[in-house]
Amino acid sequence: MDFRLNPNSGVPIYLQLMEQVKHGIETGALQHGDQLPGIRKLAEVIVMNPNTVAKAYRELEHEGYIEVRHGAGAFVTGKLNNQEVQDRMDRARPIFETAVTQAAALGLNDEEIRRMVEAELQKIEFRKGASH
Amino acid sequence: MDFRLNPNSGVPIYLQLMEQVKHGIETGALQHGDQLPGIRKLAEVIVMNPNTVAKAYRELEHEGYIEVRHGAGAFVTGKLNNQEVQDRMDRARPIFETAVTQAAALGLNDEEIRRMVEAELQKIEFRKGASH
Amino acid sequence: MDFRLNPNSGVPIYLQLMEQVKHGIETGALQHGDQLPGIRKLAEVIVMNPNTVAKAYRELEHEGYIEVRHGAGAFVTGKLNNQEVQDRMDRARPIFETAVTQAAALGLNDEEIRRMVEAELQKIEFRKGASH
Amino acid sequence: MDFRLNPNSGVPIYLQLMEQVKHGIETGALQHGDQLPGIRKLAEVIVMNPNTVAKAYRELEHEGYIEVRHGAGAFVTGKLNNQEVQDRMDRARPIFETAVTQAAALGLNDEEIRRMVEAELQKIEFRKGASH
DNA sequence: GTGGTCTAGACCACC
DNA sequence: GTGGTCTAGACCACG
Q1: D107-118 tens-digit pLDDT
Q2: What is the domain partition of chain A in residue ranges?
Q3: Interchain proximity D67–A8, CB inside 8 Å
Q4: Closest nucleotide to C52 by C1' from CA
Q5: Which one, out of A5, A67, C28, D26, has a CA that is 20 to 30 A from the CA of B93?
Q6: Domain A13-76 has what CATH class?
């Protein structure tokens, strides 16, 4: 597995890392029991601060995606890949596959697509009734 | 125009403000030449610090959406309202309206929706050939 | 006399007005005793707030360039066009005529020329020994 | 690199800071990749508020001179060091070095020098055909 | 009236 | 360690 990181995207690097590990798990590229690269080794490969990688692993562990076994490494758990989240994701994926592809075809760049989504999210927040 | 802000959403308030002004401009609710509410006045209405509003206005100016005239107020620019972007946005809006609404109905929260979109964007980037 | 104002230059409008009146006086376009346009009339012509024009006149009076006679209008004084300032200006003018023309010929735009001058001014301030 | 600021010059402190960083970059004192002092550290050294320094850094980033990496620091960009601008600047510098020094020797103060330059810039604009 | 600058200091996020 | 956000409030400058 190789990682694609963009330090200038505004998205924190540790989140990008988490993102991609999660994505790997959700798509089956990373299976239950698979070992993730060591923190230092990965940090070296992606030319990032080990603390950044450590934070990503720590958060992934908090969320139950991986298990960090002291001295042994980090391993993918099967636990929190519970039906609920998995199913939601699986059912939603084709929706966004289509939407994003269409938008890209219309000529929108990443930035514009994100803004579009944010605008819609705010509309929904508003329907739920946020603060003033 | 009224603003709906959620100070606890994790999204910086000034960004939420920018988002909504942009949205207003893109949908035509704010037209070229329209004056935005005064910094202090708006700050009072939304119960936020004037500096926070000022920051939103300053950034919007940097991005070319508005023009801030010292002593006179902030005004919507016509520049970024070019057909191109406007049209792209207008054509893409219903796509995301549907997609995000469907996803929300499936139970995905904001965070999951953003991740889903990011994953799709990465897939597209990847097709074009990305870095690392 | 007509005025050239740029509300987007960053330079306050009232300063631009003062600038041009001074320039007129220094070059002889405005002579001792000449009457300046009325505040309201000028404001109308240049499409600016009368307060702005008033402020320019007030400052010009403070600096002794003009005399505002209540109910009669504003008139150019000969007083502060003393030899000293006049002479300095006259001797310095060709220097900058050359410098700015050369710089423009080299392709520098207004912004770059201003920055160049500011940098030099700071170097001089520094030689005189400013605060930290 | 050390900074020389004058809080009473009328020129905003954050602009003075920007000015000096830019100058450092243009003269080569600050090279591509160099790290600028930390916001709080610099604020302490120059005895100013960290927010003031932060504003200078933020603006410099907007203008492309530096890149601010959250949690890592601020770094000089290579982008704006393109030959074109650099060369223009280098060729123009001696012109203004001479001009400003001569003007200062003639007794003109900063304000008068700026006015002189503005007058010349207007003359050039005028030749090109200006507004109002 | 408008916006702009600066301060002081809390609290959070990232590397 | 780094920068980012937000608050509270003083004081100034522009129209």
Answers
A1: 888 878 888 898
A2: 13-76, 83-128
A3: yes
A4: F15
A5: A5
A6: mainly alpha
